[in-house]
Amino acid sequence: METKIEVRMLFETLLSSPGMAEVVKLDLKISRQTALLLATAVQAGLAGAKSESSLLSFADASLASELAAVLETILEKAGLTQTSKKLSALH
After folding, report:
1. How many domains does the chain have?
2. Which of 11, 34, 61, 81 is the least buried, fewest Cβ under 10 Å from its Cβ?
C-alpha cells in the first residue's frame, strides 16, 4: 500500500462500504475548551483537504460540506461561534 493509487482505493472502499452513509446520532458532553480545539483541528483539516495526502481528497465534496455543518453545530451549541470566527480572523 505504498502507492497513492492503492491508498486512494483503500479509502474509497472504506467510504463506500455498506452502512457508511447511515446517519449516526452522537450525544457528546465535552468542555467548551475541547469544542474549540476540535473546531480548530477540523478547520485545519478542511483547509488542507486539497492536499493529495488528505483523507478528504478521496471523499466527495458533499462530505466536506457535511463535516463543516457538523462543526458549525458544535460551535453553536457551545456558544463559541463568534469566538471561533474571531480566532480564525487572526490567522
Report:
1. 1
2. 61
